[in-house]
Amino acid sequence: MKRIIVFLFCFVITNNLLGQDKISAHTIPLDLLENANMVVRNQKIDVTLNDLDELVIVKKRIVTVLNRFGDKNVEAYESYDDSRMIQKLSLTILDENGNEIKKVKKADFNDISAVSGGQLYTDNRVQYYDYKPQKYPYTAIFYSKVKEKSSATILNWYPIDGYYVSTEKSTCLFTNNTGVKHKVKRYNTNGQEIQEDVVDGSLKFSIENIPAVEKEFMSPSFRMIMPRITIALNEFLLKGQKGVADNWKNFGLWQYNDLLKGRDELREETIRKMNHLVSGVKNSEEKVKRIYEYVQNNTRYVGVQLGIGGWQPISANQVDKVKYGDCKGLTNYTKALLKTQGIESYYVIVNSGREKVSIDKSFSSLQGNHVILKVPVNEKDIWLECTSQTAPFGFLGDFTDDRDVLVVTPEGGVIERTPKYNKEDNLFVTKAKVQIKPNGSAVADVSLESYEIQYDDRVGVTRLNNEQQKQEYIDEWSFFNGLTIQEVKCKNDKENVLLLENITLAIDNYLTRVGDKWLLSVNLLNRVNKTPVQYNDRKLPFVISRSYKDVDGYEYELPKGITVEGLFKNVKYDNQFGSYSLNVKLMEKENKVIVKREFELNEGIYAKELYSEFRNFIKKIVRKDKLKIALVEK
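RESULT FIELD:
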């Protein structure tokens, strides 16, 4: 009898264990399915620091993919190089009921170089498996064990993957077996139920049952709003190089002394070339400009992810020899060329991208993904983007504007802020003289002026051939039927960061015939065409990333015998989001209609409760931009 009881007990335990391993898609809580393309069922990340040159990361990730949009979030990959070794790697695929349908061993993973567009070579490689499902939903169980010889980056834990991904459970455990002090930074954790515990001396972070977040119109980037835990050391090892990050000053000193010093040497021939280039120039800013343009005209950007963890630039002499480099190499090269003329400049680490992401000045660690140059001249700072062959001198654009950066000086690291382009700077001016024909068609001479960030948005048209330019305008003004672009002339005025576009166009049916009247659209070109999406219960704040101003002026010459039946009242709106005005008047003697329009938007992160008000503001502008006036025979 006792043996039967023992057998039954073992049978129950075994079945319970099997039941736990059998992961069915049908057991996902309903609230985690809403808005979800994928569900993280259980993710465990175990990070153990045994020494500065031994960091072990074990990851087990179980996800259920609900549709094809969730495939990209499986994340069945690991990167490696000569200091990061993949010790274990596997992927198991289950059907919706939890039955195994595929098992992938480490040897079956694809192994490729981590070279991406614009990169020449790198010592990074990736092992990945791209599963092609026959049916949804399916579950993927990914397991990896990685050992790193570096400790520069300990942990960036994102417990929630992104928009449209829900999380059933995610856990991270950090164990520090060294005497080196570590620090923890918590981002966006307010309102998120992250459980923190200390288990046998290890830090444990966990989160459970977080529904998927829908990406809404003008939502912030996921990074801005979702929780993240970052752990870093005050002392670390990077590719065998000892580093210090207890504060930004010391981190900058390490960068300067261990990564940059001695890498600015140049051949005598190059120094003589620079002397000749600036010969007779007394103004320091003009010298900087000539040397910057020399770099633009004689080098090109190529990614070179080698050196000390991809952080040390290749030497200035090497760039001078091969005529290419990555952001680090080209910035260091420009710095070295300026040094030949006694001009001091500073290597600057920045988070690049259209989204403004600052270096966290309260958390000194390896941050940033790009390098630019700061040149103090004549009591002002000149900021140089050294990777671009086309950028105007001293213009950063939206790639690195208005964010905190780390300036590396001989005295250490200093947090500063890159220039901000204000509303009045980001100007777009449209002018057009339009001749209306008796048959309702129109021809127009149009001039467009774009400044600063609006210049940055449009200057790509100068790199197209004439036919491509014409197609670009046809696509931009697709609200016209029968639009023909007859002539295009563009001038890129880099000196003033100004793009001039002159276009001659024809529209077959600009006027609309209604009975015995013609209807004339008063806004020829620069229209706000779409009303923002409506939400009954918006969940997220909304972002206007940069302020700008549009100023438009149109002059319509009417045919003889045709006049305006009547004008509408001038329009004026003004609120916290921006302003809009539309003025129309008739010049009777000349038989012309004059239209003036201005539209401004103010950057900011606005509370979700204000979205309805913002939407109504834009909705009114969409309507006003479609306004027509009636033309009748005299």
